[in-house]
Amino acid sequence: MKWKKIGDILILDNKFDVQSNMNLDEIANKHNVKTIMKVDHIYGTKREPVIKLLYGTETETINKENNCLFKLDLKKVMWSKGNNNERIRIARLVEDNETIIDMFAGIGYFSIPIGVHSNAKQIYSMEINPNSFYYLNENIKLNKIKNITPLLGDCKGLTPNYKADRIIMGYVKTTHHYLKIAVDSLNKGGIIHYHETVPEKLMDVRPINRIREASENRDVEFLKLNTVKKYSPGVFHVVCDARIN
Ligand SMILES: C[S@@+](CC[C@H](N)C(=O)[O-])C[C@H]1O[C@@H](n2cnc3c(N)ncnc32)[C@H](O)[C@@H]1O
Questions:
Q1: Could you identify the atom of ligand 1 that is nearest to the CA of residue 154?
Q2: How many angstroms is it from 109 CA to the middle of ligand 1?
Q3: Ligand 1 in reach of 87 Cβ (< 6 A)
Q4: Does any domain span residue 210?
Q5: Is the dihedral of CA 212, 156, 105, 112 positive or negative?
Q6: What's the gap in Å between 224 CA and the centre of ligand 1?
Q7: Same domain, 113 and 171
Q8: pLDDT in tens, 189-241
Q9: How far apart are CA 219 and CA 111, in angstroms?
Q10: Dihedral of the alpha carbons of 151, 152, 158, 159, in degrees to the nearest 10
Q11: Total count of domains within the chain
Q12: For residue 196, how far is its CA from the centre of ligand 1 (angstroms)?
């Protein structure tokens, strides 16, 4: 049986066939969970899950990762276990007194670890989905973070109101449409973390070229290409780190 545990909820792999004679009660007890479910798919720009409940009814839980607490309702907002290394990698890069914009903050996937593990000056966390925004606020309280400003709305409209030393663009598929706005809000010498799903053969060229294009006359220094996870056959979810002078 393939599964992942998020807080006290067990998520079974979609390909796993649940037989009618399976004792879900026993499985729940064995894994010490209150709920067993499957996530059929995640849809739309707000990244909303479509789930199937197999056992139990409660879908809200608190997941602990890298010394951070993430409260979330798995019926309403997504959790990508495969992004755990990236969540802590970014927090460890943050230097003292940085101002940060997290353009696609969700429930605080990046903002919370930054708040917990760094001495950033201010983190502006933007989120368009009211359900995710609710849990972003919950997680700020739960982790007792004082330097996150949660902002509900489209980061396209919100970002130009702020300037930052580091901008996180933790979203895939259409992220390049937001690059120009991000670059315009980045201080000289600031760093951008630009996510993209990219065919393997374009990995070394497309993300950095898109950043260069959006940066127009500014000098772009390529820092790192980090593979987050395999997205689909031949396609990878990557993050390109670049300094823009
Ligand atoms: C779910 S996160 C991506 C996952 C995350 N990178 C991780 O580590 O698990 C992306 C978030 O961006 C939000 N979003 C999408 N478009 C947006 C926009 N234009 N402005 C602000 N937030 C947006 C979605 O609602 C979603 O919560």
A1: 20
A2: 9
A3: yes
A4: yes
A5: positive
A6: 22
A7: yes
A8: 999 999 999 999 999 999 999 999 999 999 999 999 999 999 999 999 999 99
A9: 27
A10: 60
A11: 2
A12: 13
Pairing of strands 60-65, 186-199: unpaired
Distance 49 CA to ligand 1 centre (A): 13
Render pLDDT for 161-175 as a digit per residue (tens, 0 to 9).
999 999 999 999 999
Coil/strand/helix, residue 141: helix
Same-domain check for residues 216 and 103: yes
Q: Mutate which of 171, 193, 237 to test ligand 1's pocket (most atoms within 8 Å of Cβ)?
A: 171
Please report the atom of ligand 1 found closest to the CA of residue 172: 3
Amino acid at 13: D
Determine, yes or no, domain membership for 90. Answer: yes
Q: pTM to 2 decimals?
A: 0.96
Neighbour-count burial for 119-149, b at 16+ CB within 10 Å, e otherwise: ebebbbbbbbbebbbbbbbbbbebbebebbe
Compute, in degrees rounded to 10, the torsion defined by CA atoms 49, 50, 54, 55.
40
Q: Which domain holds residue 49?
A: 3-58
Q: Which of 163, 161, 179 is nearest to 171 (CA)?
A: 179
Same domain, 53 and 91: no
Between the CA of 110 and the centroid of ligand 1 the distance, in Å, is 11
